From TrEMBL:
Positions of the HMA domain: 1-49
InterPro entries, alphabetized: HMA_dom, HMA_dom_sf
Superkingdom as given in the UniProt entry: Bacteria
Protein name as it appears in the record: Heavy-metal-associated domain-containing protein
Organism name: Comamonas denitrificans
Pfam families: HMA
Gene3D superfamilies to which the protein is assigned, alphabetical: 3.30.70.100
GO molecular function: metal ion binding
């Protein structure tokens, strides 16, 4: 998967077999996270049908890859006037 069009193709293929699946497709790190009622094998077959070669990763590896993305952080202030967290 190299771009947003690839990500959209994978998402459509998964939704074709499970229209209620929760899907997170990340083209930049080439990962797909799916939760739904079907098996991992079913989702992998849908990804293959879209023209890609899926590889099952451990959840911890995927979470670590997503954690490496820059995210905004709270400034730590507890004052309602200065806190970036509300």
């Amino acid at each position: 998967m190299k771009c947003g069009a690839c990500a959209a193709r994978i998402q459509r293929s998964i939704l074709a077999i499970d229209d209620e699946a929760n899907i997170g497709v990340h083209a930049r790190d080439k990962t797909v996270q799916v939760s739904g009622d079907l098996s991992d094998t079913d989702y992998m077959l849908a990804i293959q049908a879209a023209g890609y070669t899926p590889e099952l990763l451990a959840l911890a590896e995927t979470e670590q890859a997503n954690a490496e993305e820059p995210q905004s952080k709270c400034c730590g202030s507890t004052s309602a006037k200065t806190s970036c967290c509300g």
